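Tokens help. One example:
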Amino acid sequence: MYGRKVKLRFLFIASVFLSLILSAFLILKSLEENVVYFKSPSDIQFLEEIKNQKIRVGGMVKENSIKVLPEKINFIVTDYKNEIYVVYSGVLPNLFSEGKGVVAEGFLKDRNFFEATKILAKHDENYMPPEVKEALKEK
């Protein structure tokens, strides 16, 4: 029916296609473990179920909500619709302050409580280091 060359070409193309599919599957499966989803406090209120998976909560640090205790720091992250209480043990970034943007990475304990393992402070596009600002004032 088909010649030997046709059968060999078909087997070669089929094996290349299967190896590409297998490679894509393995890459996506390995990346699945390292994916961290970003949620706002409002998104967390509407979650169907709370899994013990690593997520990032982002929003603004609520005014007058930072409480520094000996072992941990408590503060509230808000998106001006909903709030979530965050507890963190560790060193805070220099840009972390009330009324500023923050992203906290960690684990959700319930819809209102988040235990952070890492804090990432954000700044806007107009940020300028203090040294540069002083140098511009002098000139």
Notes: The beta strands are 37-39, 54-61, 67-68, 73-78, 83-88, 101-110, 113-121. The CA atoms of residues 87 and 126 lie 29 Å apart. The chain has two domains: 1-34, 37-121.
